[in-house]
Amino acid sequence: MRVKGRVWLACWMAFALLLFAVVVWRDTSGFANASRLRDLRNERSVQQARQAALMRRIREAESRAVLIPRAESLGLRLPADSEIIILQAPPDERR
Question: Between the CA of residue 74 and those of 11, 27, 68, what are the distances in Å?
Fold first, then answer.
């Protein structure tokens, strides 16, 4: 049995329609992924800014300008040079 031209045309049209549907699906998926990636990059930027602010606060809290008044309010004082003893670790004898 021989297939007529209209059947071939219908097959090619169905194939083209399927192909166009795949292209549209792929593009839609790509746009969704690009949007999600943009959102994640924005969130990462916010988190990095938050981390930088927290690190700045830690550096400020560790500074002598903050620690010395706080220690003095607790009744502590800085040691004199003669009161400082430097301890050295024993040499590593595993060699």
Answer: 88, 65, 10
pLDDT tens readout for residues 10-39: 999 999 999 999 999 999 999 999 999 999
Instruction: Report the SS3 class of residue 37.
Output: helix
Q: Per-domain residue ranges for the chain?
A: 5-76
Overall pTM surpassing 0.90 (yes/no): no
CA dihedral 55, 61, 84, 93 (to 10 degrees): -30
Angle (CA) 62-76-66 rounded to 5° is: 25
The conformational region for residue 75 under phi > 0 = left, psi -120 to 50 = alpha, else beta, is left
Beta strands in the chain (DSSP E): none
